[in-house]
Amino acid sequence: xxxxxxxxxxxxxxxxxxxxxxxxxxxxxxxxxxxxxxxxxxxxxxxxxxxxxxxxxxxxxxxxxxxxxxxxxxxxxxxxxxxxxxxxxxxxxxxxxxxxxxxxxxxxxxxxxxxxxxxxxxxxxxxxxxxxxxxxxxxxxxxxxxxxxxxxxxxxxxxxxxxxxxxxxxxxxxxxxxxxxxxxxxxxxxxxxxxxxxxxxxxxxxxxxxxxxxxxxxxxxxxxxxxxxxxxxxxxxxxxxxxxxxxxxxxxxxxxxxxxxxxxxxxxxxxxxxxxxxxxxxxxxxxxxxxxxxxxxxxxxxxxxxxxxxxxxxxxxxxxxxxxxxxxxxxxxxxxxxxxxxxxxxxx
Length: 348
Fold this sequence. Notes:
Elements: H1 2-9, H2 31-34, H3 40-66, H4 71-83, H5 89-98, H6 101-108, H7 113-127, H8 140-154, H9 177-191, H10 196-203, H11 209-217, H12 245-266, H13 270-281, H14 290-300, H15 303-310, H16 314-326, H17 331-336, H18 339-345
Helix pairs in contact: 1-3, 3-12, 3-16, 4-5, 4-12, 7-8, 7-9, 11-12, 12-13, 14-15
C-alpha cells in the first residue's frame, strides 16, 4: 500500500490555491470516473492519501509559526482564529496578539478558575472594544455584569487597545464574538495552570475527547452569556452553549489535531501520531461549507451518491477540500491538470 501511495503522490500538486475561477460550475471530468464502480478502490486510495497530505500540510503550517514560541502559544492563536471563522478570523488573531499568553499567565497567577474566567472576560471584551460605552440603557442584570467587568479591568495594566473591526453580517447572535470570547475565557481559565498542550494531551487519554473539549469551552454554572446573545438583550428561554459542538469539532480537526501531530513528530511519539490520524479518519463529518457542497456536485452531481462514496467522515471532507484547492479552484486550467483524473485514468 505504501508503494501505491508513493505513486499517488506523483499526481498530487500540494500548492497554494487561488480563488480565481473558483465558482465555475458543472460536473467535472472526474465525475464519469468517480461514478464508475471499478474505480472505487483507487478513488478511495487517492482520498486517503490526499487527506493525510492535507493533515501534514496543516501541521507544517503551524511549524512555521512555532519558531521562537512554544506549543501553548500556537494553540492559543490557532484556537482564537478558528473561533472567528472566515468573517472574524483576523479580529480574533489581532485580539490574541494584543494580549499575549505570557501576559495572561502573569496577570492570572494565583487566581482560581472562577476568578480567572471573569478576569479573562474583562480583558478580552475590553481589548476587543466590545464593552458598551454606557450602561444606562441596560437592565439590572446587565448593569451588574458590566460593573463586575469594569472592576476586574481596573485591577490590571494592559497595552493600549488596538482598533478591532468585527464583522457581524450574516452571523447569528448565538455566534457573536462576545459569546465566543467568553467560551475562550472559560477554556483558558481551566487550562492555563497546567498549560494548553498538557491539558489537550490529557483529553486524548479520555475515551471521549470531544466531551472533554466541550466542557472546557462551556461553563456548567450560571453565566451571563449562557442566557444572552447581546449585552442587555432579552434572556434566552434556556441556556445556550457558548461554543457549539460543530465549532469545537472544527477546531479539533483544523487546529488541535494538526498541532498535536506536529508535537508527536517532534517528540518521536509514533503511538500518539497514529492514534490522532486514526481518530481523524473515523471523525464524523463537519458542518458542510461551500467547498464540500461544490465538490459533491463536481464529482458526483448527486449528494446521496457522494455521501456513500465519502463514507461521511471529516477526513474525506478534508481530502475533498485539498483537491478543490489544488485543482478545482483554478478553473478549467486546474480541471485539465487534475491529479485525481490522471490517477484514475492511469488504470492503477
